[in-house]
Each structure stands twice: as structure tokens, then as C-alpha cells.
Specification:
This protein has about 290 residues and is α/β, with parallel strands linked by helices. The chain is built from eleven helices and ten strands. Bound molecules: S-adenosylmethionine.
């Protein structure tokens, strides 16, 4: 494996059947080969990141998505291209995320991305004292109002991209629990959100991180590289390392994630975005609290 990697074959190449070398290594029980691929992936992504550092992100990654209609239909929310924005098979995972970020009575919680409101429904059942929801899509915002979310106890809706609403989000804080799950954004956006939540920075206004309680908990939908286990494992390492640089510990709990997925699940959806058996549910806390 080392030889193949050193020869320059990309760690993330797919064969004609859509399998990675990691799939073969894992199915054959070759743990060392699988680990070598994960390490190669981490190294390659780090180099890529350094090369791309200068590129600016003036345009929203999901500008097209935000300017086109979305449709709620039964167990799913789809965009204009029939991508699954949110699907009900994720409900058990959202329940767990809600319990993680809202474990104390009278919590103050922040959720980025309403979608089908699955996590927000689970959070409401846990009766947070304050429940801030940030949503950028006009159709989703309209749906939230139609469903009376603006009148639910403790709920404050912030309409707009989280990137443009940080002052408002900050003014409504601080928070005991934060969850992040947007659509059509890149890893860079998630990383930027982490900088906003956890970094103390030089600017006087930004010295208090959003998750300012010492026992605060943050979590995010961990769909990173969710169509191939090798890609997912590489990204789990990368996000954990990036959060650690901000003083945050990440623990992944493995949860079975394919129980509610069957042949019908992806029917009519352009691209299945989750193909893995186990979901790595992240619990992120300030490092000094948990070490
Ligand atoms: C995957 S869904 C969230 C699903 C939600 N966790 C649930 O339980 O139903 C993603 C949501 O994030 C919204 N969104 C996308 N980009 C955003 C941004 N930059 N700021 C705020 N919301 C955004 C989308 O419109 C969509 O409603």
C-alpha cells in the first residue's frame, strides 16, 4: 500500500465500480493498509488546504440553492435539482444530537439550519429556556412561520445566512448548546463557523466565544464524506484536529445509521449523500473541561 501511495496514485481514487482502495482494504481485513490510506488522505488534504489558502470565498457556496425554490414532500425536503436537503431517515440521529446539546434544564440553545425542523422539534421537547434558529432559505423560513415556529416557547428565528447574521446570533447568546447542519456548503464554511464559535480572536468584541459556558456542548451533522467510508474517516480526523487547535475536544460516538434506510429511501433523489453503516456522532467540548 505504501508503495502505491508513494507512486502517486491518489488516495481517493474510485474504481469502475465506485469503490475506493479503502473499501477493498477494509473488506479484506487489512487494517494497516486501511490506516495507511487514511493517513495519506489526511496528508493530501492538508497540503491541498495550504495551496488553496489564498483563495477567497466572496460568493456563497450555496447561492444557487438559496435562490431557487425548495419543496417539502412527505419524508423529505428537496431542492430544485432534486437533491435531498433533509430526509426523515436522519430523525434518530437528530434526536441524539438534540439530547447532546440540550442536556440541562433551562438550556440556551442555538441551531443553524432548520430544514424539516426535526432537531428543533426534539429540542422543543426538552424545553430549552432559549432556542435560537438560524435559517437562510426564504421558502424554509416561510414554512417555519406557517407552522408557527415564531410563536413557540423560547424560540427566536434569525432569517439569513449565519455568515451574515453573526452579530444578531451573538447578541442572542451566550449558549449552552450549539448545533450546525446547513446544506450545500463546504468544509471551509464549517471551519469558519468553528472559528466564529470557539475562537477568541484579537478583536475586543469577539473575545467571548459563542459557546461561552465552560460545560457548553457543540455538535454538527457529520455527513462529511458520507458516500465513502475512507473519505469520511479522513474528514473525521481533519475536523477533530482543526477543533483541537481551537481548544476543543471532539469525541465520536458510533451510532448505527442504516437502520432506517432501504431501497425506497433514495428513490427520486439525485444523489444519495449517506452510504455508511455507522454514523460518528460528534460531541465537542472545551478541552480543559474534559481533560
Ligand atoms: C440539512 S437542513 C437542516 C436539517 C435540520 N437539522 C433538521 O433536523 O431538520 C439544512 C438547512 O440549512 C439551511 N441553510 C443552508 N445554508 C445556510 C446558511 N448559510 N445559514 C443558515 N441556514 C442555512 C437550509 O436552507 C436548510 O434549511
Amino acid at each position: 500500500m505504501q508503495f502505491v501511495i508513494e507512486a502517486g496514485i491518489p488516495w481517493n481514487a474510485l474504481d469502475i465500480g465506485g469503490y475506493t482502495a479503502g473499501d477493498y482494504a477494509e473488506n479484506g481485513g487489512h487494517d494497516a493498509a486501511y490506516d495507511a490510506l487514511v493517513q495519506a488522505g489526511i496528508r493530501a488534504e492538508m497540503v491541498l488546504r495550504m495551496l488553496n489558502q489564498k483563495s477567497t470565498m466572496d460568493q456563497a457556496a450555496n447561492e444557487d440553492y438559496l435562490s431557487q425554490p425548495v419543496e417539502y414532500s412527505g419524508d423529505r425536503l428537496v431542492d430544485a435539482e432534486k437533491n435531498g436537503v433533509m430526509m426523515s431517515w436522519e430523525a434518530p440521529l437528530m434526536e441524539l444530537h438534540a439530547q447532546i446539546i440540550c442536556s440541562k434544564p433551562e438550556s440556551s440553545v442555538l441551531n443553524i439550519g432548520f430544514g424539516m425542523g426535526i432537531i428543533d422539534t426534539a429540542l422543543q421537547a426538552l424545553k430549552p429556556a432559549k432556542h435560537v434558529i438560524v435559517e437562510a432559505h426564504p421558502d424554509v423560513y416561510k414554512h417555519m412561520k406557517e407552522e408557527g415556529w415564531d410563536k413557540k416557547p423560547g424560540v427566536h428565528i434569525v432569517f439569513g445566512r449565519w455568515q451574515d447574521k453573526m452579530d444578531e446570533i451573538r447578541a442572542l447568546g451566550p449558549y449552552d448548546g450549539i448545533f450546525f447542519d446547513t446544506f450545500g456548503e463546504f468544509y471551509k464554511d464549517l471551519d469558519n463557523f468553528h472559528q466564529a464559535v470557539f475562537a477568541t480572536g484579537d478583536d475586543a468584541d469577539k473575545k467571548t466565544p459563542l459557546l461561552c459556558q465552560p460545560d457548553g456542548v457543540y455538535s454538527f451533522f457529520n455527513g462529511l464524506g458520507g458516500d465513502h467510508k475512507l473519505f469520511h474517516d479522513v474528514y473525521c480526523h481533519i475536523v477533530k484536529a482543526d477543533l483541537l487547535k481551537l481548544g476543543v475536544n471532539t469525541q465520536y460516538s458510533q451510532v448505527s445509521s442504516d437502520v432506517d434506510i432501504d431501497e425506497e429511501t433514495w428513490k427520486g433523489i439525485k444523489r444519495p449523500y449517506w452510504m455508511l453503516k455507522a454514523y460518528n456522532l460528534p460531541t465537542c467540548t472545551w478541552a480543559q473541561e474534559s481533560s
